[in-house]
Amino acid sequence: MLSQRCLIEDLDLVQWKRLTDLSLVHWRVRRLFVVHEAGKVVRCLDTIKGDLPLPAERADDAQALADRLLAERKDDGMQMVWVLDLDAYHAAIGQVESQVDPKSGIMDYLSKEWEQRWKSGVCAVAPNGGTVIYGLPWERLTRFVTKMLPPSCTYVVGVFDGDALWATCFVQFEAHQIVGISTSMALDPEDVKDVVGRDQHPFLLAAVANRYKRPAFGWFCQREDFEAYMKALTVDEKDEIFQTALMKNTATFDFNVLIDRGITPLASMNPGEAAVAGVDREANPRTQTPDPDEPGPSAF
Q1: C-alpha distances in angstroms, 183 versus 172, 208, 285?
Q2: Which of 133, 250, 274, 295 is positioned for an S-S bond with 284, CB 3.0–4.6 A?
Q3: How far apart are CA 268 and CA 288, in angstroms?
């Protein structure tokens, strides 16, 4: 899904640091690693306390052991338990490395490694919550991109702290491949200035659509909902946070371009300075509807 020649540009460093810090939360959670050899536990390692006494029971049912150990140690601050046969794990990962196309990119490798790790049975994890890579439900996102996206579009994430834009991310897709990543720094500062509050998200979509000549859609939410989503450890927890925010009207998922490919996200929005000056939207280069027949910029 990530193109080998993805163009990353126009990054607001403050916004980008906020996003990357949250994407790395999963790597910082407290874990318990239980290593076994054909069911016999040989090491128990807490990432905070170091080596611990070995559990009495065998790891013949690795998932049951992981679930029990997490339940027992959750009150002590344990967040995740891994139970793995190290030799089998190395063999499984070696198989992935021998088969993966080096030209396919790091995200393709990570998703294949994750699938082999869990589905081959060499590793059990609790909570068992699906493929989460850098805080994102990767299998679900890949399926969504493959089945739902038009050939060319931009996915916009807008996170608000009160009425102020706290973080943004613009992800350009071409033929189901991510070909560009940027933030609001890519836009005219006057466009960004007009986006005050989440209800102004259509104006942000319009500005992004005009900037990249691709239809735009996206997710717009408050900072606390976004942080909770990124910190959630399982896909189910992320689903609950996402849906709850929508029902509470603290988030918006604007997906009109996915329902009708002829719809552009340029209706019911704050027209900004064009309206103040009495200028029609289509006469303003910053707010006019993109020409669907005009090819968008290539990231290659």
Answers
A1: 11, 10, 20
A2: 274
A3: 14
Cβ pair 83, 121 in contact under 8 A? no
| Domains of the chain, each with CATH number or no CATH | 2-22+138-283 (no CATH), 28-128 (3.30.1050)
**pLDDT per residue over 89-99, tens digit each?**
777 777 767 77
Q: Where are the alpha helices (DSSP H) in 79-234?
A: 86-99, 106-119, 138-148, 189-193, 201-212, 223-231
Question: H helices within 201-271, ranges in order?
Answer: 201-212, 223-231, 235-247, 256-259
- Residue 284's CB: how many other CB atoms inside 10 A? 16
Q: Which residue has the tokens 């993109």?
A: 290
CA distance 163 to 3: 34
| Helical (H) or strand (E) element with 137 | strand 136-137
Q: List Cβ neighbours of 31 (8 Å cut-off, separation of 6 or more).
A: 46, 47, 78, 79, 80, 81, 82
pLDDT in tens, 41-67: 999 999 999 999 998 889 889 889 999
